[in-house]
Amino acid sequence: MTATAERDYILGTHDDEVARLGVQHRVWRPRMLDAWRRARFTTGQTILDVGCGPGYAALDLAEIVNRVIAVDRSQRFLDALRARDVPQIETVEIDLDEDELPALDADGAWARWVFAFVKRPRDLVARVRRALKPGGVFVVHEYVDYRAWRVSPRSVEHEEFVDVVMKSWRAAGGEPDIGLDLPRWFEELGFEIRSLLPIVDAIRPNDFAWQWPHSFMESGIRRLVELGHISPERASATAQAFTATEANPTALMITPVVLEIIAVRR
Ligand SMILES: C[S@@+](CC[C@H](N)C(=O)[O-])C[C@H]1O[C@@H](n2cnc3c(N)ncnc32)[C@H](O)[C@@H]1O
Which end of the chain has fewer CB atoms < 10 Å from its terminal CB, N or C? Predict the structure, then answer.
């Protein structure tokens, strides 16, 4: 045990979640790197990684820019990143629901799947703005339509699972489709939107991208039982339905829609 209590989030901060975030990162890395290229993240810059998790993106950022400030409230996640011992990366343990971000005058900021989990997302936009210098660029990947996540052949169990996941995030104070609100808040709070890009894929079980929902189903179902959102019986029916979908080589999955936002601090 560490001296202070671990502050986890709805999906947990256990080793399975560290591993799942790694799979998710490997699937999403090409899109992330492309967004950073268009945002002109480059050598010499200081970039803030808002809600960095175990730091997969921060490690990529450190290969591009000079200084990465990686913030999260999970000690376990930050310890995983510190263990990598990368001199360009500074970790800061803060609660994004409450604390001010470090005063940085940063050249840019990056956040992925973080606004969906915080309780005061609009206020977090304002705090990120204060950590950026004028002209600083903020790149965000957040869900805009989580319910779009469907499979063919259609699965009632899958659709019910998506429903419960959304409810569980909302019950913890988050909002899965936060991408619907962010562009408006950005403009109200002093950002200029440079680009908006919805990202959705249609994938087959033999695509590498399938490993992303695969790993989420594994740990997600377990977590929903742990938190009392579904019964063990329903969990096993959901898992069986997903296994049947995966075993069907002609199965198709539409992924939950992510909105990429690139915005510049006015
Ligand atoms: C889905 S993970 C995404 C991690 C990382 N951005 C990535 O793309 O791999 C959500 C992250 O938000 C962090 N988080 C959620 N609520 C937070 C809060 N109130 N304060 C600080 N971090 C928070 C969690 O600890 C977790 O690391």
Answer: N
